[in-house]
Amino acid sequence: MTTALTAFWRATDDGVTIMVKVQPKSRRPGLQGMVESADGPRLRVGVTEAPENGRANDAVCALIAQTLGVARSAVQVAAGATSREKRLMVEGDPATIASRLETL
After folding, report:
1. pTM (predicted TM-score)
2. Ordered domains of the chain (ranges, CATH)
3. Nearest-angstrom CA–CA distance, 73 and 23
4. What mean pLDDT is predicted for residues 84-95?
């Protein structure tokens, strides 16, 4: 496990927190690699939804849930609901989620 790969996520007692930078109304939806931020690297995520009424947040959570193979209800925006830079909480077995994140 290298620092560069794991710097955008942290294991917790009941899951994993993931730092993301969201591109709403993206022409290229999906995972778009890594991007540097003032507080460290983030996973760049593009969604086609507009940032209105929480639609982009829902789309990001659904995409991360699908990518990690967890239920949609297991992914929530923990911080940054109105910002492009967000912290997501993914509930589940931290070791299983971490192994899936390492393959991204």
Report:
1. 0.89
2. 3-102 (3.30.1200.10)
3. 22
4. 95
